[in-house]
Amino acid sequence: MELRHLRYFCMVAEELNLTRAAAKLHMAQPPLSRQIKQLESEIGAELFERSARGLRLTPAGQFFHEHTLQIMDKLDTTVAATQRLARSKRVIFGIGFVPSVFYGQLPLLVRELRQKDNVELVLAELTTVQQVKALKSGRIDLGFGRMRIDDPDVEQENLFDEPLMAALPEGHPLADTVPTLAQLAEYPLVLFPAQPRPSLADITLGLFRRRGLKVTVAQEANELQTALGLVASGLGITLVPEQVKRVRRDGIVYVYLADPGLISPVICSRRKGEAPSPIMQEANAILEVLVENRRSGRYP
């Protein structure tokens, strides 16, 4: 399937008349008809109902048309953005992140870099595993996650260790305590992210398993905000990094844990052996200040 097939299909779907569509496409009607037939054959579905009155989209055609328009809109937007980038001579700098690190100082790094006239910043929400793949493919330049990944092409730096907290529904029996994991294990657990794995979900489960504790997973969620919403609804409790307490949400109480050593690292991933570009040097300098602020307690 080629891009032109999608353009042809969209025009025919808009006109519902092969002759008019061919005229707008500046081509003859028979070749256009063959192209549409080939597209239907490749998809394995009839996209148009053909009758003496003309053409009409089938349910499959309506579905394909809706999604094809989204693809074409996205393509047009991407092409326009690429042209603007080429004219401006700006450098693309990609940052990947897991959501739970975006409640601390990472937004400050993003804000600083966005103020650079020569930088086009691209953000991507990715798990740590996905970040490693994105670094190796060149999609991103920096990654912020919470898992150690052993890969010869990627270097990881532990920026700091962050205490884990329990997010409890308001009014929970443990809301005014400093509970242990053993106490938390008695309550249903909301686990996130459900997919893709491995992720913070596996770190959470590992903490209980290593202490010989069994937990009941009441619900899994892909998004942090969804997990917090489920907790607020009373479906269970969850463990979150300390940064997340900055999220003010009705019906949620955050408490520290009594067990020692319950931490989640914030890890920065970069391509190994690559000479830092001027933008990377600036990002590293900003990051060094932010991390020092965090370690010295000047920023939670």
Automatic annotation (TrEMBL):
Keywords: DNA-binding, Transcription, Transcription regulation. PROSITE patterns: HTH_LYSR (PS50931). It comes from the Bacteria. The keyword Membrane does not apply. Residues 1-58 form the HTH lysR-type domain. Gene3D superfamilies: Periplasmic binding protein-like II (3.40.190.10), Winged helix-like DNA-binding domain superfamily/Winged helix DNA-binding domain (1.10.10.10). It holds the Pfam family LysR_substrate. CDD domains: PBP2_BenM_CatM_CatR. The keyword Transmembrane does not apply. Belongs to the LysR transcriptional regulatory family. PANTHER family: LYSR FAMILY TRANSCRIPTIONAL REGULATOR (PTHR30346:SF17), TRANSCRIPTIONAL DUAL REGULATOR HCAR-RELATED (PTHR30346). This is LysR family transcriptional regulator. The lineage of its organism: Bacteria, Pseudomonadati, Pseudomonadota, Gammaproteobacteria, Oceanospirillales.
